[in-house]
Amino acid sequence: MGSLTQQPKLPVIHFCEENLKPGTNSWLSTRNKTVQALEEYGCFVAVYDGVSLELHNAIFRASKALYDLDAETKAQISSDTPSHGYVGQEPLVPLYESLGIENAKTLQGVQKFTNLMWPSGNDFFCETALSFTKEVSELDQTVMKMISESYGIQKYYESLLGSTTYLFKLMKYREPKVNETNIGIIPHTDKSFMSILHQHQVEGLEIKTKGDLWIPIDPSPSSFIVMAGDICMIPEELVDDTHPLRYKSFHHYKFLDFFHSDEGRKSNFPIKDYCGV
């Protein structure tokens, strides 16, 4: 009899308070697991207690209220940065819609979005979106601190935080119609530095491994998928004869413009074609 091949799974790492005290053995262990997971898979499942079950439920109630709005209202969300505004009704991905809240860690950014969607105001949506973004950004900053420590580039950590802006994308995938594709969005890598996904209890997300296997993700209220984006690259301090320089310095938002250009859309490796050495 042939042996059964076991389905690979993403590493699951617990980001609870007791594991997040810098300098402790628990911190070092969590940090090492985090970096190993990013190096091997480019992502991992974070079990994170910063977002309570109450907040988890609230953000999905807020999202439903948002997507119950008519298409004309949602289309008011626009941005100079491609894909940061309203995206929907696209023939290539007919099941997919998204709305982006720029500067989502700030009250000003969230209020601007809320007032466009609800001119008379919506305190529940505004407060929930701001609370959720602040809690998830803490997870992002913790992961970045672990990466910088592990690679010995701590001096970049504070400057990186100072230049970081947060985009909160609320995404919806409708149920496919008869004889319609069931693919929500085409396979891709994110063009951010780091992405953190949080799902409703609906399966569908899959992650591709180095060995070309697809790993299905089983969502839960406490789980977050932390992904390294195309911009998460090697600083020059880590460049040596064994690890040569692979990318020139570049501006992130200009790279996003390139990615959404005709040339960028045709590229199989946009970051390499844009600024590869």
Could you write a compact summary of the structure shown?
This protein has helices at 25-41, 53-67, 71-74, 107-117, 123-150, 155-162, 252-259, 262-266, 270-275; strands spanning 12-15, 43-48, 96-101, 168-173, 194-197, 206-208, 214-216, 223-228.
- Provide the residue-averaged pLDDT: 88
CATH class of the largest domain: Mainly Beta
Portion of residues in helices? 25-40%
The shape is globular
Structural class: alpha+beta
Cα-atom radius of gyration: 20 Å
Summed up, the domain count is: 2
Strand content: 5-15%
CATH topology of the largest domain: Jelly Rolls
Tell me the name of the CATH homologous superfamily of the largest domain: B-lactam Antibiotic, Isopenicillin N Synthase, Chain
List the total number of helices.
Answer: 9
Low-confidence stretches: none
Query: Kindly, what is the distance between the CA atoms of the first and last residues, rounded to a whole number of angstroms?
Result: 50 Å
Number of strands: 8
SSE order and pairing:
Elements: E1 12-15, H1 25-41, E2 43-48, H2 53-67, H3 71-74, E3 96-101, H4 107-117, H5 123-150, H6 155-162, E4 168-173, E5 194-197, E6 206-208, E7 214-216, E8 223-228, H7 252-259, H8 262-266, H9 270-275
Parallel strand pairs: 1-2
Antiparallel strand pairs: 2-8, 3-4, 5-8, 6-7
What are the defining features of this structure?
14% strand; two-stranded antiparallel ribbon; Jelly Rolls; alpha+beta; 277 residues; 2 domains; four-stranded mixed beta sheet
Describe this structure in words.
The chain starts with 11 loop residues before the first strand and ends with a helix. It is about 35% helix and about 15% strand. Helix 1 packs across helix 5. The chain folds into two domains: about 220 residues, Sandwich (Jelly Rolls); about 40 residues, no CATH class. The protein is α+β, with helices and mostly antiparallel strands and about 280 residues long. It is globular. The strands form three sheets. It has a four-stranded mixed sheet with strand order 1-2-8-5.
